[in-house]
Amino acid sequence: MDLDSDPQRQPNYPPQYPPQYPQQYPPPAYPPPYYVPYAPPKKNDKTLLIVVVVVIAVFVVVPIILSAVLYSMVTGFEPRGMVVPTGTWGAKTVVSSTSVIVDFGKINPEPMPVEIDIILIRNGTIDGKYLFASNDDGTLILAQGRDVGTLFYHDLADNQRINIGDQLDMTNLYPNSDYQLKMIWGPTGDQITTTSFSTP
User: How many distinct structural domains can be found in the chain?
Assistant: First the structure.
């Protein structure tokens, strides 16, 4: 019997490559287009910068502050107003029996006029306390006691500070009288200096 003539026999074809049968493949590791994604950008971490700033503050700024505090303690720093100036009156010029001009001498530190009180005493018993109305030229104001004269301030340098050359022009004084002139530091009431003169 001829096998080739057998109708029930299937033809013998050569095998196919790859074999034609169902195969299961795992899903791709990454979605299309199947490449490894780039790493995300790093976050802006300011921790290191903060640490550097703190270190600088501790090792640089703090010593400077401590040095300033120690310096002020050593030099005896005190707020202005608690430090009483030192100084003297200057030349005295008797103009007439009712007028005398007294110059201011060197005062350290140089005060503003409104920080100074002037006390004028006549014959040791009658006195008046005068205040500067401003830091400019002008007539002093009687604040306490009796009016024993009219006091006018001349700011020679026009710098609103009492310094050498400034003058206190006193008029309407009593003839044949002995006067004492006191310069008082207003904030504390301490006396800076005093002088005396007489009218003919």
Answer: 1
